[in-house]
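Notebook B, p. 112. Complex prediction, attempt 2.
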Amino acid sequence: MRYLPKSESERREMLEACGVSTPEELFAHLPDAVRLNRPLDLAPGISEYEIVQYFRERADQNANGYASFLGAGVYNHYRPVLVDTVVSRGEFLTSYTPYQAEIAQGTLTTIFEFQTMICQLTGMDVANASMYDGSTAVPEAAMMAVRATGKGRVLVAKTVHPEYREVLGTYAKHQGMPVEEFGYVRESGALDLEDLERKMDDLTGAVIIQTPNFFGIVEQVKAAAEIAHKRGALLVVIFTEAVSLGLLEPPTDADIVAGELQSFAISPSYGGPYAGIIAVKEKYIRQVPGRLVGQSLDSRGNRAFCLTLSTREQHIRREKATSNICTNQALIALMATVFMTVYGKQGLRELAEQNLAKAHYLAGKLKPRFTGKFFNEFVVRAEGKTPEELNKQLLKKKIIGGLPLGRFYPELADSYLVCATEMTKRADMDALVAAAAAQPTAENVEVTA
Amino acid sequence: MYPENFRYTKEHEWVLAEGDTGTVGITDHAQQELGDIVYVDLPKVGSHVEAGKSLGSVESVKAVSDIYSPVSGEVVEINQTLADAPETLNTDPHGAAWLVKIKLSGAAEVQNLMSAADYLSYIGAQK
């Protein structure tokens, strides 16, 4: 597709058709105060060569050749080459809202496969065609639980990703949906079931937990579900690290599962675009937000796919729609679909085992702060220096250290969250361990001063 | 076709008042207009509904339509069978496919609604 601006003669032609002689005349009716009254401050056009050069320079600013121990919601996993090969096909890459059953069987088939695999991973009955990302899937899940129960209050664990909780707060503010938090156990790093039980009441429609939680700890889904269900609330289970589903028991005690698929072949890319999911038990199918693809028969009796249960959506139900989400992340979700297909059930399990093994090798040398069982990330208390100081030292060795937690948890300001994946090399883990253990030297003091 | 002991609304619901309880449904005309009904969304038992306000919705293969309550009061019973057999609304809208039973706040509301004869001429005029 050529993307060229209109030519001078086309401009003249359009102005003539409008009966004016300059573009300014077109806007003459606008008050002077709101008009710019000068051309936009845009650089003149540059050549293709210069554009390529520009983007090469930007690409060189990436931390190429660095090892990273960052996780905390965005994970460094391998992207099989097949992913880009498939998603680069024009049929997938350039189609917009590709839901017309008559012309989009290919796309609808991939979405149906996506939904099927998400159900298999999460242990739920129904999954939608994807959400924008994990963080926006959380308030959608909360609002869904509120609709289903008719109870407006939401209880969320402090161990849910802090930025997800912020997004939830933004949605909740204008939904008249009070959100309160419950704590975690200081020793284990797991959610505090007693605090949850104390804060539960009969007005609570949703209890939201994350597993593995923000500290990497695997939560007790069943126990949380019992507390929620006893008072008539639904349990929403969040995940940020989809690879964990290859090994951990699916959260079948949940009523709604919402999560982030970035781990499935979606590159970190400054934080997006990613793809989220919402999967539910069948009895809540009519409350699901977003697109759903179903299997049907065409006029000749052949298997075919089409959008289904669209009456939940705003183009039909207007202000009573389940959500204002009426699209999905088709292309990004396709990356995850190809990823799941490439790895398969056994492959995903092996991948998860590698993550577990690497993280536990590292944990054997860096003492985890919490006692709870973890998957591929855990919290470490920095000794003899702050987490920020440690990270500065590591950067000199081309290592991006863990996430200092003080920004999100003031009580954990002396600690950082560290993640190991299948991409993490043993030499880099040993270098991290050495730097963490090193006493401040003259050189280090100079660095941190 | 349209029972004499029912009262009818302009939005095509019916109510049968017996003592202080009103049974509510949608009319045969409504189901014909809607076509094949695939889902019914009903209020919770114990919730309060108001005359003229939405008490739920019916989904047909064509559209989603609100059901407006003909009367005010508290929902005391809902027709559970419709969850599994919404198509009953197409076959027996004035009988087996009643929607909810409401404990009436006042009997006067029912009297203000249309009689069967009025309703027949109303839908006749609409056509």
